Amino acid sequence: MSDQNLTAIYAKDLIKSYGSFRALKGIDLQVHSGEIFGFLGPNGAGKTTAIRCMLDMIRRDNGIIEIFGKDPQTESVAVRDLCGYLPGELRLDENASVKSILNYLRRLRQGGKDCSAKISQLASRLDLNLDSKIKNLSKGNKQKLGIIAAFMHKPKLLLLDEPTSGLDPLVQQIVLELVKEAKQSGATIFFSSHVLAEVQSIADRVAIIKNGEIVEVGVTSSLLSKRAWRAKIKFVSDDSGRGAMIKDLEGVTVLEVSDDNKIFDIGIEGDVDPFIKFIANFEVDYLEINKPNLEEIFLSYYGD
């Protein structure tokens, strides 16, 4: 079987505890080769623990986990050679330079492949001085270093733990572009985040983890299609009978009415076209329609 046909990440009944606290409660996960997979959850949900188990940085208590068909526990060197990893908390020698850290990490890899051209390219795009000392870097620039280290050897699998943390919006967009480019080159990207907008913008599929359990997983577009559109409309004049007419529209739910039947807050499931055609018969002061987003799905599990 070719690598392209292999599942990049496979986990079955994965369990990990820290003392009496169970961080992962038997999660099942399958990430396809060549996809961008978003792993959603707040701090403490189990995202980082799952990634560390994938690299055998911590040992699972029970269950199965495979990276391109390899067990990280018995083939750890081979697994890590396939991966680029950005940890959530990057700790580095403060007295070293950016360049020396990257060269050190390069030499640790099997074969020590020359990555100098790729390192220079990434440093230029991220605006990071390779001669800077680690101790002189801001949090954002340290994050840039971690991103370069993860991408520089063009790995088959990128494991990114909160990749845009500490970065300004412009650099965040560059990082998301790098993720898309890596996918176009054939890489698989698994990244954890609690920034829902960035996950929605690039992920092919997403999983939501809550208290060590996966509560939702699916294609991003399919998950979004399950949620209603939200609309807020204000009519110029009041009309007590108009509310009943709106409620009769297929797929429309009236959530709130105010200002003497002028302002309606509604949910729309399915096609919005019938609603638009209906309101065209009235004089409208303003209309605001919002697409469903991952935040609604996320908050349906974490709303408390």
Describe the structure.
The structure is a single chain. Helices cover 33% and strands 30% of the residues. The protein is α/β, with parallel strands linked by helices. It has a six-stranded mixed beta sheet with strand order 5-6-7-3-8-9, sandwiched between helices. The chain is elongated and about 75 Å long. The two termini are 46 Å apart.
Give short descriptive properties of this protein.
304 residues; alpha/beta; Rossmann fold; Alpha-Beta Plaits; 2 domains; 6-stranded mixed beta sheet; 4-stranded antiparallel beta sheet; 11 helices
Examine the coordinates and then state which fold CATH places here, giving the name of the CATH topology of the largest domain. Rossmann fold
Q: Summarize the helix and strand pattern as letters.
A: EEEHEHEHHHEHEHEEHEHEEHEH
CATH architecture of the largest domain: 3-Layer(aba) Sandwich
Indicate the percent of residues in helices.
25-40%
Largest sheet: 6 strands, mixed
Class from helix and strand fractions: alpha/beta
Number of domains: 2
Sum up the overall morphology in one term: elongated
Distance between the termini: 46 Å
How many helices in DSSP terms? 11
In the CATH hierarchy, what is the superfamily of the largest domain? P-loop containing nucleotide triphosphate hydrolases
